[in-house]
Design goal:
7-stranded antiparallel sheet; 11 helices
Length: 743
């Protein structure tokens, strides 16, 4: 079943009936049993934008380094710990999460020279290191032993011993003598790039400073490497560094085009601006393909022969479509949604690149084509069918030759393994990842690596139900729970979502969801517009002027849970991170009576001023959200921006926000201001807390122990607010009322 839009006169009647239920659930407020939050000073700052006047009482919290802000953060962290508490519940959650999250996944080494290299977080280590081992004399057919004794190549604990610095391999020189690797300090998006002499065990003087980088690749002769550099002030550039020369002398090969951030249009621009991403791929003979991504809905492609004395030539530019490119036997294969909202694959001869000469390899199908691999002379195409995986095999001319055995409601990935076989990884909300080896001739499978996670998925079930959004659009939602559980609105229910940036939210295994179900809870995951689950039309229906559709979808999914008897408003929590944080914050400001508790992680919240935050490096997001410097887009953003839509005296749900100082993608000032605003505005008596980490950011910055601690604190907060502190049942002091007082 595909999403459809069915305007229905019954929707209004249904919501009238639900409104009475929500009002009854929010009725009996008593004196709060929670301690009051720290005092936050109000210092109004008045702005006028497009003739609209705004007052911001907490602008002073935008100064991250001021002593007042630091003292405020410390007080908020202390308050958050006071509210959640070091309870037996939290201790037991942390113990179980360490088991569920601590299992290493399959490790697939990368061969370079005489060694195989891989990243691994060994037993007892807070962060992964880079290791190597000699290439085995005989090819190995089983998984690498994650507990083996291997040579350490780069240990991030020697850089910073607290486990908040990470390292990652980026490329190897053709002869295997050098390794490019990245060092990330905390959770910031920026990294520094270093070159390791693998024989000497030392870094060369060549080092790219801490900044934003795209892909990196050694040249064919190993004398240097190409890299993409991106900054806020200018568009991305492709540069070439010759080893042993100053970085300042690096040649600029492609890119540039400075642009005004405030003036950028939602349609993007033909040049490279700070709202663009740049990528490259090489054919190995001096020919490059460049992809310039303008936001998440449009890509330009250029072909460049570095051996010829001429500039790059446009291959696909100015089209309202995305392109993903690769070289295949001298041809250019492009996965694109041009004239195909569900995507297709075309082949292009570099000598005759005009669209009239494009050869269609895989035609658009009813399901969304999300990727493909070429293995043993066959194309294995990955599709999404109602937000779960299918993998179909084709010959190189696009004729279908089979389909891999993927169970319903699963996520599947395929990787090349050895001649005649591949590895198929399967996972689901109730099934930790396991790997099958698949015979590419017969498509028969045998277990290669069973699940290592201590979770009995057979005790749990997953179903997919459909809900109807405000405008009549129908969409699916996954619901997972213990087999035989009859919630009747009493099971603690956690609803998650994302809805944006063409990201498909799929039913992967998640330790939080697994533990939630173990505790007797029901876990739901809503498919929302703005994602990529149903193609580009679905994506565009949830971006820019259509962003409110995403919030309407999420609210409709929550109402479906209540109406269907799965949940009640007093036992319903919602969870979202990043763009999902914007989602749940918009839901709580638009429909506060519908939810009892909210987890809002690393969120975008002040959409009116988002374009003015100089510390963000996610300027391309303006092409997805909209830019308030543009008047028409401002009015859309103003209508749903959570920070501007908090109202005084409203019974808001309990809210836990989380953020960190080193988030350079989503400005952390937003979570600070939103915490203060909600604490001052809410009249429900329920807590609003902020868990704030000085080392965390969008890219991580947390040790394994810190990740476990954070997840346990989050689940403890939500379970306590839903009155589910026991093993599968129970409550916080018998609390059932919306104010958290004993009822």
């Amino acid at each position: 079943m595909s999403p459809i839009r069915i305007p229905s006169p019954m929707l209004g009647l249904r919501r009238l009936a639900l409104a009475g239920l929500f009002a009854a659930a929010a009725a009996a407020c008593q004196t709060s049993s929670y301690p009051p939050p720290p005092d936050t000073a109000r210092r109004p700052v008045v702005d006028t934008l497009h003739g609209v006047v705004f007052t911001d009482d907490y602008r002073w919290l935008e100064d991250q380094s001021s002593p007042e802000t630091r003292a405020w953060i410390a007080a908020q962290n202390e308050y958050a710990q006071q509210v959640v508490g070091d309870t037996p519940l939290r201790d037991s959650l942390e113990e179980r999460l360490a088991e569920l999250m601590g299992v290493p996944g399959a490790v697939f080494p990368r061969r370079s020279g005489d060694y195989e290299y891989f990243s691994l977080r060994g037993p007892g280590r807070p962060v992964a290191a880079i290791y190597r081992r000699p290439v085995p004399e005989e090819p190995e057919h089983g998984p690498l032993d994650a507990s083996g004794d291997y040579e350490v190549v780069i240990d991030p604990l020697e850089i910073r011993p607290d486990g908040t610095t990470s390292v990652a391999v980026r490329d190897f020189a053709p002869d295997g003598s050098l390794m490019l690797y990245a060092v990330r300090d905390g959770g910031q998006d920026e990294v520094s790039i270093r070159v390791r002499d693998l024989a000497a065990g030392e870094d060369l003087p060549d080092q790219l400073p801490n900044a934003l980088y795209g892909n990196l690749s050694f040249s064919e002769d190993g004398a240097g490497f190409h890299y993409v550099h991106r900054s806020r002030q200018a568009g991305p550039r492709l540069r070439y560094h010759v080893l042993g020369t100053p970085i300042e002398e690096d040649a600029e090969i492609f890119g540039g085009g400075d642009a005004s951030v405030e003036g950028v249009s939602s349609a993007g621009s033909a040049g490279l601006s700070p709202t663009s991403f740049l990528g490259f791929t090489r054919a190995g003979d001096g020919r490059f393909l460049y992809t310039v991504q303008h936001g998440w809905a449009r890509t330009d492609v250029y072909l460049h022969d570095l051996g010829a004395d001429r500039p790059p030539s446009p291959l696909a530019t100015g089209e309202p479509a995305r392109f993903r490119v690769r070289w295949v036997d001298g041809e250019i294969f492009m996965l694109t949604n041009l004239e195909a909202p569900n995507n297709r694959v075309v082949a292009v001869e570099p000598g005759t690149p005009g669209q009239d000469n494009w050869r269609e390899v895989l035609a658009e199908a009813e399901d969304v084509l999300v990727g493909y691999q070429i293995i043993d002379g066959s194309i294995f195409a990955s599709y999404l069918h109602n937000a779960s995986s299918r993998i179909v095999r084709y010959d190189m001319d696009g004729a279908r030759t089979g389909e891999l055995p993927v169970p319903d409601h699963h996520v599947a990935t395929l990787r090349n393994w050895r001649d005649g076989s591949a590895l198929l990884t399967l996972a689901a909300l109730n099934a930790p990842p396991r790997i099958l080896e698949i015979d590419l001739e017969t498509l028969e499978t045998e277990e290669w690596l069973p699940s290592q996670t201590p979770f009995d998925g057979a005790q749990y079930e997953v179903e997919q139900v459909w809900y109807t959004s405000k405008d009549g659009t129908q969409a699916p939602m996954y619901v997972a729970r213990r087999r035989g559980l009859d919630p009747a609105g009493e099971a603690p229910t956690l609803l998650s979502g994302y809805g944006g940036f063409n990201v498909s939210l799929l039913p992967r295994f998640d330790a939080r969801a697994a533990l939630w179900m173990e505790r007797g809870g029901l876990y739901a995951m809503a498919t929302l517009r703005g994602g990529g689950e149903f193609g580009e039309t679905w994506h565009r229906d949830g971006m820019l002027e259509n962003k409110q559709n995403v919030f309407d979808d999420f609210v409709a999914a929550a109402e479906r849970l209540v109406e269907g008897g799965y949940a009640s408003p007093d036992r319903l929590a919602i969870r979202g991170v990043s763009n999902g944080g914007l989602l749940v914050a918009s839901a709580l400001t638009q429909r506060p009576e519908l939810f009892r508790a909210v987890f809002c992680g690393f969120p975008d919240l002040d959409m009116v001023r988002f374009h003015q935050f100089t510390e963000t490096n996610n300027l391309p997001a303006l092409l997805e959200y909209g830019n308030a410097a543009v008047e028409d887009e401002f009015h859309v953003l103003r209508a749903f921006s959570p920070y501007q839509n908090v109202r005084d005296g409203v019974d808001y749900p309990a809210v836990m926000l989380t953020q960190g100082d080193l988030d350079t993608r989503v400005p952390p000032l937003q979570a600070r201001k939103m915490t203060a605003r909600l604490q001052a505005a809410t009249s429900s008596g329920l807590p609003v807390i902020l868990d704030y980490d000085p080392r965390a950011g969008h890219a991580g910055g947390r040790s394994f122990g810190r990740n476990v601690r954070n997840a346990a604190m989050e689940l403890a907060f939500l379970l306590e607010q839903l009155g589910a502190t026991g093993q599968g049942q129970g409550g916080r002091d018998g609390a059932t009322g919306r104010d958290g007082a004993a009822g």
